[in-house]
Design a protein that fits this description.
The complex is a heterodimer.
Chain A (H helix, E strand, L loop, with lengths): L11 H9 L8 E8 L18 H13 L9 E6 L4 E8 L2 E2 L11 H23 L12 E4 L9 E4 L4 H4 L18 H9 L14 H16 L10 H17 L1 H10 L3 H19 L7 H20 L4 H16 L10 H5 L8 H4 L14 H6 L20 H10 L4 H9 L16 H5 L15 H5 L24 H11 L20 E3 L1 H10 L34 H5 L16 H5 L9 H10 L4 H9 L22 H11 L4 H9 L2 H4 L3 H16 L5 H10 L6 H9 L6 H6 L9 H7 L13 H17 L9 H11 L4 H15 L9 H18 L1 H10 L3 H4 L1 H5 L8 H11 L6 H12 L1 H6 L2 H11 L5 H14 L42 H4 L11 H6 L4 E2 L1 H7 L3 E5 L3 H6 L2 E2 L3 E2 L9 H7 L3 E5 L5 H16 L5 E4 L2 H17 L11 E2 L26 E5 L14 H4 L3 E5 L5 H18 L4 H12 L9
Parallel strand pairs in A: 8-13, 9-11, 9-12, 12-13, 15-16
Antiparallel strand pairs in A: 1-3, 1-7, 2-3, 4-5, 5-6, 10-14
Helix pairs in contact in A: 3-6, 3-11, 5-7, 6-10, 6-11, 7-9, 8-9, 9-11, 10-11, 15-20, 15-28, 23-25, 25-28, 33-34, 33-35, 34-35, 36-37, 36-41, 41-44, 53-54
Chain B lengths: L2 E4 L6 E11 L5 H10 L12 E11 L2 E10 L9 H5 L4 E7 L3 H17 L5 E7 L11 H11 L2 E4 L8 H11 L2 H5 L32
Parallel strand pairs in B: 2-4, 2-5, 5-6, 6-7
Antiparallel strand pairs in B: 1-2, 3-4
Classes of the chains: A mainly alpha, B alpha/beta.
């Protein structure tokens, strides 16, 4: 017991703290906090017959909002994990030193008082913030008040509050079978409520006022000031309870007096203070033998009264005033009546206890650790640093705790395992999980040795006394060993387990094992060590490529998709034909296009380039458009100021270079399976750093993000990256908040029965919080899309976005809105049958195109897409696979063409090909309605990608909707989120120019009816030109027409007599695409085309299609080009594809099927270039000119697009020449394009 | 009416019947099938989109087995236009309602009417009140349902997919009701292509878009 409290001038307490806390105490580690959720809900059902959501899942859901809290005085929550038997482990930032292990020396000095006051005010501010967020700590206790030792300047330790969310996440303690909060720090009203709680009841949810936290603060401060425990060290829980009950009773009975007192005093705090003091005086008089430690609160009371007397005398010692303020604070907090007790806000706003709040208040700038920043980036770019430093930018020390934690898990760290290691394996039997049958009041009347409250003791020593020594409460703040993490708790557990009543007929009273109250600390150094030792590279190179029947030929039809506007220069390189080698399949474009140091040979060059690059106007605009956007990079370092103005591509280059991602290493990684990449710490660290750098510059960096996302998406940043790819802008968030998400609507009934069935295995979606959010999202989306309706299955489409953006409904909503608008815009209309069957028709054609054998087999078995593919396309596979797989699938969907889901579906069929070919309908349909989730998703994605690359886009053109279906009205009302409509340049989803140029008839898809009636798909003439001599054009017209009306150069005429027997012959020609041409205006030709296609499909020719519009399309397209050139378009001189006088070599003579056909077509002397469907001018692709050594250039396109494209190409070529002169192929392309104007024209 | 398949010597005859499940959303159609086919129950069974397919055999007597080819359909009203595709050639239908939801019983009556009007005239229809385990929240009385079933000439059963009560009995009673004898004479080849044993799903229904012959 402290005996002397004279004022001295030493500040040993601070030194003690500084010494004790080495530098390690300053860096946050990770704290694991395990406890058990209630299993009360286990066997109960709610009204609709579904089982009640388990308490663990509810806690999981309620926890999520805590993760979003950011305040300097809070330890950030990082994660929550759910284990067996309802064990929950929360993961948060953690520091080694806490208020429980820290004490001030006596006697009190001025400095000590200031320190304590500093701590108090920081705590008050933190509590104020939490209360403002609707969170009551309830279990505030010294162990959770963590301290960062002060710097020399401040002299006051920084306070970080931990474990503040237990009461909130358990829904005011409802979801756990133990009381939340240490009774020694619980306010009287809270302890009474806990004691009266019926732990088996469903409705008992004690709701506390935020003033409960003030009481705990008062108790802690009193203990700090006296270095004595608030309660008698030997006090039992019963005694404490009785004391608090008396105190509370006293407060209630004397309330009348206090009110009259309050009327005399203008200041409410003064009133609260005087009430409190008078109550404590009464307490001292009436209950001298209470459980209260006389040397704590009563001693402070004496102190306060003597200080007040001193002040009245006129003495004004600064220490006195500081101490007096503290004492006033303590007694304000210790007001037994919760209605009179001031809250944190009250206390902070009053000078009675808080003289200069600004002195201690922390600024709201998020500190560097709460936000992922690449601090090291600028410092590492100093030219003095060698470029080949192993991993400077991505060194572990440069990233914040959330990334460290993520990498720790990537490296195999598991919260549950750590807890087991520290605590000892939990050996919970079923009996032990029986909830306590009795209320606390009953327990209290039992033998104190089994007092169930003992578990609420919060340090190892109190865990030890689980059952044996409860009556002895050894709480003395000064007595705790500093960082004694529970080496001895294993014994404690054994002891506790031994004591547990194993007879199930007895009420299980001891709930100690449910809640140990201890936090397992993992210091940052330990985490980094773990990551370092577990992150060796995996070199299992994965070369399992898609195996086609013949040699694989790839035209990368993906290379020029719409997203590519700005990264075209890189992806254009990928447009390459690789013939004759199975191994030469193209990697996804970005694999090649990934910026590597090769483009910027050393770091110095990088810097020079960056510095020289002018400010891109778009970036500056973007910076203005997004208010409050943080500066993309730390620019404290004057040596790299220009980084700010460099383009996103340059930044990505730099990150790659700095991370040591050489081309070879990049390649290595690309060949690994995604699952391996995702478990590679180094790679993940690199990717996270790269993406975070890019995300910081979003939206200016959107194109680059998309390009990088084609390689892969690091799971850590998936939510943000998806948002960026979909073009979601944060500044539009107000739109969502203005949408009515609550009013009843027709769809409510269906939504309400679907939500509790939607991906319920998922911890977030299965919780009540998740259900509520899902409901709001669905209703909001319906409100924002008045022309669309709710189809069962749409809940599944929402699920990925909700689970990723659980704490940010707007992001989830905006992603959903844009995703549906882009990928499945017409599937959610009230009558979607036309659209749905359009999807099926395209899918059927795609299957026939790539795998005629499988297609024929399935068709003959009656296994049509209508029967199995509806959930595929309607829900984009979300109804088919688990969310974990959906993430991987959608990672690719989002960066590919809109038709990619078709290819994924095709890949699934081909995955099951062997089984499908050998079985019948029942097996097919059973497999596809039941066993689908077991396929290898990654393999399918890869195959789908390759299939997609080989497929001309025009094959995928969806049939137009019938004319009687009115186009969806554009929402124009005030409630409609017109801001969400893609309007700005960066977020272009549908180029508006597409509607300005109506396509000519030969580029317009045929109707659904016509499409369904045809066996093979139609290819547009533009794609025919792109295919070049990879395709064989088979002309089925009569010889007369062929010769007299003209034909496509190098096409082969198939005479009638050979229509059914020519397949062997064609195989020897060995082309990769067979395109059938007829005269579509002649019914006889149409019939011949049909017969011929059937023949080819029967002979299992893959890649068979017919020319859309037949010979008429060729003619019309050519006329259009002619018209254009006569209209004076100067840039290109066109060359006709016509061959008016075909040579005999190219024709088959009717009577001789064995007559020689040239194995190869003579080398082309010109290049024909088609414009891919839907691409606009600035997204044009540069064709594979380099390979063909062309002499002339032909453009086939609708009006107004050809010339702009050439201009674009020239611009791009010029740009590339200046930007990267090493790209010799492009240089020759540029030369070629410049000379193109001089080529001659051939008239038909 | 059913396709006969001799399955091995002495094993008796196997009759195939196409069965379709209809009923309002979330009444437990899929759960009933899962209980019948796999004897499983999943608290959070995902909703059915389009339709799902299962097969299960029921022994009727020592040498006769009935094999059901079950089409489990989506419950939402919007998917209703697809239903004819599945019930068009069905020989039996199970119309399910939830005994705790009076509205689902009304919906079941509508389904029965539609079947009796548009499906095969000889179709065997069973009315099933599911979620019998939630008897305390019952909103549709057994008497009411039984009276309706008698009046409309339906089989009737109250069952629980969760506990499994009456589920097998239900399908067995349907199997017994199937006209096995008439089939033996090979009348009425409902199957469009005689050789295949696949359940025919009619894609040429007037209510479905013109896609039936797609690439066939």
């Amino acid at each position: 017991m402290p005996s002397s409290r004279t004022i001295a001038t030493t500040d040993a307490s601070l030194l003690q703290l500084t010494d004790q806390a080495a530098s390690a105490s300053n860096t946050p580690g990770i704290g694991l906090f395990p406890f058990y959720a209630s299993n009360r809900n286990g066997s109960k059902t709610c009204r609709n017959g579904l089982p009640l959501i388990s308490a663990a899942t509810e806690i999981y859901g309620r926890f999520q909002s805590l993760k979003a809290l950011r305040y300097p005085g809070l330890c950030e929550y990082l994660d929550i994990s759910k284990g067996k038997h309802g064990r929950i482990i929360t993961v948060s930032e953690y520091y080694q030193v806490s208020l429980a292990t820290w004490s001030v020396s006596t006697p009190l000095t001025e400095t000590t008082c200031a320190t304590i006051q500093g701590i108090a005010i920081q705590l008050l501010e933190t509590l104020q913030y939490l209360h403002g967020q609707g969170i009551i700590v309830h279990g505030l206790q010294p162990q959770d008040v963590l301290l960062i030792p002060p710097s020399a300047a401040t002299r006051i330790p920084t306070v970080k509050l931990a474990n503040y969310g237990l009461y909130h996440m358990t829904n005011n303690g409802y979801h756990v079978d133990f009381p939340v909060g240490d009774p020694h720090y619980l306010a009287p009203e809270a302890l009474l409520a806990v004691m009266e709680r019926d732990f088996d009841g469903l409705d008992a949810q004690p709701l506390m006022l935020s003033a409960v936290d003030s009481w705990a603060l008062g108790v802690m401060l009193a203990q700090l000031l006296t270095s004595a425990s608030f309660w008698r060290p030997a006090a039992t829980l019963t005694e404490i309870f009785t004391t608090l009950e008396s105190l509370y009773h006293l407060a209630l009975t004397t309330k009348a007096d206090t009110i009259t007192d309050a009327e005399n005093t203008p200041l409410p705090l003064t009133a609260a203070l005087s009430t409190s003091l008078s109550l404590w005086t009464l307490m001292q008089e009436r209950y001298p033998m209470s459980a209260l430690n006389p040397s704590c609160v009563f001693y402070l009371m004496d102190q306060y009264q003597s200080h007040t007397a001193l002040t009245a005398d006129g003495t004004n010692d600064p220490t006195d005033s500081a101490l007096r303020r503290l004492l006033q604070l303590v007694f304000c907090c210790l007001n037994p009546n919760e209605l009179d007790r001031p809250t944190a806000t009250d206390l902070l706003s009053d000078s009675l206890v808080c003289p200069h709040p600004q002195t201690y208040s922390l600024d709201m700038e998020p500190d560097t650790d709460t936000d992922l920043r690449c601090e090291a980036l600028t410092t590492q770019t100093k030219p003095s640093r060698p470029a080949h430093t192993t991993s400077p930018i991505v060194s572990l020390s440069a990233v914040n705790l959330t990334v460290i934690y993520h990498l720790w898990m990537v490296a195999g760290g598991k919260a549950g395992k750590e807890c087991d290691r520290h605590i000892g394996q939990e050996q919970l039997t079923a009996i032990q999980r029986i909830p306590p049958a009795l209320g606390m009041d009953l327990l209290l009347s039992r033998d104190p040795r089994s007092d169930s409250y003992s578990h609420a003791g919060h340090d190892p020593s109190s865990s030890l006394m689980t059952s044996a020594e409860t009556s002895d409460w050894p709480r003395s703040p000064a007595s705790h060993p500093s960082d004694d993490f529970p080496s001895s708790s294993l014994d404690a557990q054994n002891e506790a387990t031994d004591y547990l009543p194993m007879d199930s007929t007895m009420p299980v009273a001891d709930t100690t094992y449910l809640y140990r109250g201890e936090t397992i600390a993992l210091p940052r150094a330990q985490l980094e060590q773990f990551i370092a030792t577990n992150s060796e590279m995996h070199y299992d190179v994965h070369l399992d490529h898609f195996d086609d029947d013949g040699d694989v030929v790839v035209i990368d039809f993906l290379a020029g998709t719409e997203e590519d506007a700005e990264s075209l220069l890189d992806t254009a390189l990928i447009v390459q034909f690789t013939t004759g080698s199975k191994r030469s399949i193209l990697l996804p474009t970005s694999a090649e296009a990934m910026p590597t140091p090769a483009q910027s040979p050393d770091l110095k060059t990088t810097n020079n380039r960056v510095t020289c690059r002018p400010i891109e106007p778009k970036w500056s605009v973007a910076a203005q458009l997004v208010p409050g956007k943080p500066e993309p990079l730390n620019h404290k370092d004057p040596s790299a100021p220009a980084v700010l103005h460099s383009s996103p591509i340059a930044i990505a280059d730099m990150v790659c270079a700095l991370a040591g991602m050489t081309p070879a290493r990049t390649k290595e990684y690309q060949l690994m399976k995604l699952a391996i990449r995702e478990r590679d710490c180094q790679y993940q660290l690199f990717r996270v750093t790269l993406f975070q750098t890019l995300l910081d510059q979003y939206p200016a960096s959107r194109t680059e993000i998309i390009k990088q996302a084609r390689v892969d998406i690091p799971p850590k940043l998936r939510p943000q990256i998806w948002s960026a790819i979909l073009g979601v802008l944060r500044c539009d968030a107000w739109v969502y908040h203005h949408i009515d998400k609550e009013s009843p609507s027709d769809a409510d009934k269906q939504i309400n029965v679907d939500i509790p069935r939607c991906h319920q295995y998922h911890n977030l979606l299965g919780s009540s919080v998740g259900h509520a959010k899902m409901r709001r999202l669905l209703k909001g989306w319906l409100r924002a899309n008045p022309h669309l309706v709710y189809w069962q299955g749409f809940d599944s489409v929402t699920a990925p976005f909700l689970s990723l953006h659980f704490n940010d409904e707007y992001q989830a909503f905006a992603c959903l809105y844009r995703f549906v608008a882009k990928y499945i815009p017409r599937l959610f209309t009230a009558d979607n049958s036309q659209v749905m069957y359009g999807y099926f028709a395209v899918f059927q054609h795609l299957l026939t195109f790539h795998d005629p054998e499988l297609s024929s087999h399935l068709t003959s078995a009656g296994f049509t897409p209508q029967l199995y593919a509806m959930p595929w396309f309607l829900t984009m596979f979300t109804h088919v696979f688990s969310l974990e797989k959906i993430y991987l699938i959608w990672d690719k969907f989002l960066v590919s063409t809109k038709s990619f889901p078709h290819f994924f579906g095709l890949a699934i069929l081909r995955h099951a090909r062997a089984m499908l070919l050998t079985t019948g309908f029942n097996e097919h349909i059973t497999m596809f309605t039941n066993a689908l989730p077991s396929i290898d998703v990654e393999q399918c994605i890869q195959n789908a990608y390759q299939l997609c690359q080989m497929t001309p886009p025009s094959l995928m053109a969806l049939p137009p909707e019938s004319d009687d279906v009115a186009p969806p009205p554009t929402p124009t009302t005030a409630t409609s989120p017109h801001v969400l409509q893609p309007t700005d340049h960066h977020c272009e989803a549908h180029p508006p120019m597409a509607t300005q140029h109506p396509e000519p008839w030969w580029l317009t898809p045929i109707s659904l009816t016509a499409r369904c009636a045809e066996l093979v798909a139609r290819i547009f003439i533009t794609d025919v030109y792109v295919l070049g001599d990879l395709a064989l054009l088979l002309d089925i017209r009569s010889e007369q027409e062929f010769q007299q009306e003209g034909h496509v150069r190098h096409s082969i005429r198939i005479p009638d007599s050979l229509l059914t027997s020519v397949s062997n012959y064609l195989k020897s020609v060995h082309r990769h695409y067979q395109i059938i041409v007829g005269d579509d205006d002649k019914p006889s030709d149409v019939e011949r085309v049909t017969v011929f296609t059937e023949q080819l499909i029967q002979a299992s020719f893959s890649h068979v299609c017919r020319m859309h519009g037949g010979i008429g399309a060729v003619r019309a397209a050519w006329d259009a080009v002619q018209a254009q050139s006569t209209a004076g378009v100067p840039t290109v001189t066109a060359v006709s594809p016509w061959d008016g006088a075909p040579t005999g070599n190219h024709r088959l003579s009717a009577g001789s099927p064995t007559s020689p056909i040239p194995p190869t077509v003579p080398e082309k002397d010109f290049v024909m270039v088609g414009l891919a469907e839907g691409s606009s001018a600035h997204q044009a692709r540069i064709p594979p000119l380099c390979r063909c050594k062309p002499q002339k250039l032909v453009l086939v396109s609708s009006k107004g697009r050809a010339e702009s494209r050439v201009t674009v190409w020239q611009c791009q070529a010029n740009m590339k020449l200046t930007a990267a002169s090493s790209a010799s192929t492009l240089a020759s392309l540029g030369d070629y394009l410049r000379n193109a104007g001089s080529s001659t024209s051939l008239a038909p | 009416m059913a396709a006969v398949r001799s399955s091995g010597p002495g094993a008796g005859k196997v009759f195939n019947f196409k069965l379709v499940l209809l009923g309002e959303s979330a009444v437990g159609k899929s759960s009933l099938v899962m209980r019948f086919v796999k004897d499983q129950f999943d608290d959070f069974r995902e909703s059915t989109i389009g339709a799902a397919f299962f097969t299960q055999s029921v022994p009727v007597d020592d040498n006769t087995t009935v094999k059901f080819e079950i089409w489990d359909t989506a419950g939402q009203e919007r998917y209703k236009s697809l239903a004819p595709m599945y019930y068009r050639n069905a020989q039996c239908a199970v119309v399910v309602y939830d005994i705790t939801q009076a509205a689902s019983f009304e919906k079941a009556k509508n389904w029965v009417k539609e079947l009796q009007r548009q499906a095969d005239p000889d179709i065997v229809i069973a009315l099933v009140g599911n979620k019998n385990d939630l008897a305390s929240r019952r909103a549709v009385t057994t008497d009411e349902s039984q009276a309706y079933a008698n009046e409309a000439h339906l089989l009737f059963q109250e069952a629980s997919a969760k506990t499994g009560a009456n589920v097998n009995e239900l399908f067995k009673s349907i199997a017994k009701k199937m006209p096995l004898e008439s089939q033996k004479q090979g009348q009425k080849g409902l199957r469009n292509s005689s050789a295949t044993n696949r359940p025919s799903v009619d894609l040429n229904n007037a209510n479905t878009p013109p896609s039936g012959n797609c690439a066939c």
